[in-house]
Each structure stands twice: as structure tokens, then as C-alpha cells.
Input
Amino acid sequence: MRLLPPSEFSLRLLGSPFSEEMPQSEIVSNGQPTGKIVNGAVLETAIRWNDLVLAFVTDNITNQEAMHIYLFDAGYQVIDSAWLGSIYASGVFSLVDVCPPNAIRFRFLGDMDWTLELLSRDTFALPYVFEPCGVSRPFGFHRRFRIRAKRRQYDRR
Amino acid sequence: MADPISIKDCEDKKLFDQSIKALETQLANVGAHVTIDSGTRLAYAREIKLMARKLEADALAGKISWGDAAKQAQETRNLIMEIFRRQSTSVGRAMAQKFKVSGYSLNELVARHTSLHYGKEAMFKNLTSGKKDKVYASIIKSAGKSNQKISAALSRLSYIGRSLIVISLGISAYNIATSTNKLSTTRAELLATGAGIGGGIAGGAMAGLVCGPAAPVCVTMGAFVGGALASFGIGFF
Output
């Protein structure tokens, strides 16, 4: 499990950054365009996990920032995804920690610590239930990662 | 002499009717909350867009520099957010406070937009003044953009809220139309619906005082209970 540098994995914005349309980007792997298109404009961070790549991508919309999380297979097909956003808040991404073997802690929406747990195989999950507030997932009964949110703990000393 | 059982039956029926009425008015209560909050958020997005367009026009006309316009876009956004937050219901405010207002600082925005336009390796301080202006213009443009997925969710919520109010009004209209004493029923319907909405708003505000502002579950419960109690209580007058 390691962070991928831009030279290995990056996004190339399609269209103008000044466009009013929702942004889309092409995946660039080792400097080579792959032809694979995803929603979003800014690659916040990318992490390699076994032969998979996990990418956190924001839309670059300052006042209503939302985030797409994609898990790609070796051919950059999306095998699971999630969308984080809220009508009440704009997100700001920061990576807190990469916790081997399979967890990533980050901050995005609100005063919460978010944890993404990668799953080594398709795991049954009920759609729309047990997802934290602000997380939206495509309809399906299988997941390759789970997201949890916990109110941030402050040191009271 | 009246049969005591039938008097009790009559009282029970009245209690049952009032309970059902209190539940019916919750449609209007929920509808009003959802309509107010989604409307407020949509108005916030519109206002932000207008602000960004005005700053862009001012910078293009040379009235202010692009750098100042970007700084103002950042500062004005917080002001607009605060104004619209005050116009939200207590439930909407509790949700907003749970998530907290967060946003990138101007420096962070400058770094993000520099890298978006000129690559990850680019440093803002090394850019020419023309390129710097382009970065500032990009920040202003981005400040005025709406996230279409969030806008769609808000529009759906607004539609749901208005639909709930229409359903509630429809039930009231049906009750009035099928009543033998239309004047009395109209008065009762108006009072119950008004009390349901007013009680909901007051209940939410009181729950906010008890549980703290950033407790959306508690505030929502307060709004629901407040609306039901007010509607139930008004039935005795």
C-alpha cells in the first residue's frame, strides 16, 4: 500500500477549467493517456493497493466541493466508487494517514474523521443503508471498500 | 340520561381524530422545513454565482485587481453563507453546524488552481503576472460554480417539500369539503396546520437550545414533536 506520485498516476482535465460544466478528466498512467474518463478535476491523492488503484478526486468547485472516490482495477476499470458531498457544506480534503494493510484515514466533510477500508474481495452490502451521512454509492449489493465516519476526537489535555 | 359508554367512546374518538390530525399536519410541518431549507440553499448558490460574476466584471473593467477580486470572493462567500444560514430552519442550521463551514484558504486555492492550470510542479510566485491573473480569474470562476449533483439534490428536496405541503392542503380541502360544518372545519384545519408548522419551528429551536446547535437528530425530533404537540393541543380550543 503506497501513495502514487503524479509521474505514475495523474488526471488530465478535459475541457477548460473555466467551464460551467461538471468537470471530467482522463486518467494518465506513467505519463501515458489511458483513454479512461472519470468525473472530477483534481486528483487529491492516489494509492496503490495490490494491483488496484484508489483515487480521491474533487470537482474544484470552491463553494460546493464534493469528492469522488474510485477503486480501479489494473486496466483502470472502476470496480467500486463513492461520492462524498453535502447540500450543507463544502468539503476540504486532507489525507490523515495510510494505515496498512488496508485502511486510509482522511478528512473531507465536517468535523469528522473518515476511514476507508479496502476489501480484498466483493463483500455483500445493502444499498443505501449503513452509509455515513454525506456518502452516496451506486446501487449494488457488493462493495470493495467501506467508508466510516467518526466525530473527530480532540486531545482535552 | 346519556349512556356513559357512548360518552367515553365519543371522547376516545375525539382523541383519535386529534391524533390523526396531528399526524396529518406533520406533512405540512416537514414540507415547510424542507421547502425553506432547500430554497435557502438554492438562493445561497444563486447569490454566490452573482457575486462571482460581479467580481469578474469588476476585474475585467479594471475597477479592482484580479488578486483583490479573488480575495473578496473568498471573504464574501463566508458572509453570504452566514446570512443564509440565519434564514434556514433550526433543522437546517443544525445540519450545517454539524458539518461546519469549511473551505480552502486563499493560499490553498491559489496553489490548487496554479497546479490545475500549469501542472503540479508550477509555483505561483514564479508565474508571470498574466498567468497569476489567470489563476485568480479561475478562483473567482470556481467560486461562482454550482455542483450540479448538489443542485439536483436541492431541487428534488424542494419539490418533495412543496409536494408534502400540497398533499397536506389536499387533505385539509377534502376534510372541509366532506364536513357538515364547513366554517368550523375550515377554522380547525387552518389552526391545526398553522400550529403544526409553527410548533415544528418552535420545537426545533427549543431542541437546539437543549441539545446544542450541532445536533441535527435531536433538533429534527424537537421539530417533529413540537409540531405534533402544537397541532394536538390546538384541537382542544
Observations:
- Residues 42 and 150 of chain B are 10 Å apart (CA to CA).
